[in-house]
Design brief:
This protein is α+β, with helices and mostly antiparallel strands. The protein has a single domain (about 1-220), classed as GAF domain (Beta-Lactamase), CATH 3.30.450.40. It is about 55% helix and about 15% strand. The two termini are about 20 Å apart.
Length: about 260
């Protein structure tokens, strides 16, 4: 089988690059702190949804490997920003390294609780819910909610809702990073086409990736954030209904056929 690209395939590659370039131009117009603003919108919406004292996101960062608390919301959340822990340290590290969600009603008594880190933030929580930010590409970090005001504990329904929210958040974070890296990817792709180093399968993959970027321009997470922002005063019954709706959405998404 000949994997050398034909003239038509090279034309397709150029079209694919144009599609990627269009996405890159959009990314270039985005502010430099777009990922940070995205993360902040996630914790702000989470805080409102659960009416909690604080919410935070810790993202995995390499060299050295660590979980860094990038954003926080709420009157007790600011002290966490900029702090970092080892990927397996404390409750956040446990959730990240195991991929298991966790809800605690007495944080201080849990052996996984890292009191020294909590003291550095200036706030010792009583209760906590934490879920991993995971998508098909792997784990990105941890979303935490501290001290729900309406209850001393986080219910199973709370955890289900937080998990759905975290899944959408992880997808949005991954997409934001793709947008951030597009200029570098574009330069590499142009160079590969120019020196003829792409095989036919590679050209096909490039065209597919560019088309997927266009199809994914509208992220469902933004719609979710908009709705959450408008329901901060919902009662328990309405929140229960919202959780049911989100669960249905999650099931539908899981059953949707994937392209091969």
């Amino acid at each position: 089988m000949n994997d050398e690209p034909t003239g038509d395939e090279l034309t397709d590659a150029v079209q694919a690059l144009r599609a990627v370039a269009l996405r890159g131009a959009v990314a270039a117009r985005m502010e430099a702190d777009s990922e940070q603003r995205l993360l902040q919108s996630i914790v702000d919406a989470t805080l409102r949804l659960f009416d909690a004292e604080a919410a935070s996101i810790a993202l995995f960062e390499p060299d050295p490997d660590r979980l860094e608390f990038r954003v926080a919301a709420g009157p007790q959340g600011a002290g966490a920003i900029g702090k970092s822990v080892k990927p397996s340290q404390g409750i956040a590290g446990f959730v990240f390294s195991t991929g298991q969600a966790l809800a605690l009603s007495d944080v201080a008594s849990d052996p996984r609780f890292d009191r020294s880190t909590a003291e550095r933030t200036g706030y010792l929580p009583r209760s906590l819910a934490a879920v991993p930010l995971v998508d098909e590409g792997g784990a990105h970090g941890v979303l935490q909610v501290l001290d729900k005001r309406s209850s001393p504990t986080f219910s199973l329904r709370d955890m289900e809702l937080l998990a759905v929210f975290a899944t959408q958040a992880a997808t949005a974070i991954a997409a934001a990073r793709v947008q951030r890296d597009l200029p570098t990817l574009l330069r590499s792709a142009i160079g590969a086409v120019a020196n003829g180093s792409l095989s036919s399968p590679q050209i096909d993959a490039l065209a597919t990736a560019a088309a997927d970027l266009d199809r994914q321009a509208e992220l469902p997470f933004w719609t979710l954030v908009d709705h959450v922002s408008s329901v901060r005063n919902l009662g328990e019954r309405e929140l229960s209904l919202l959780a049911d709706i989100l669960s249905v959405v999650a099931i539908h998404g899981a059953r949707a056929p994937r392209r091969r």
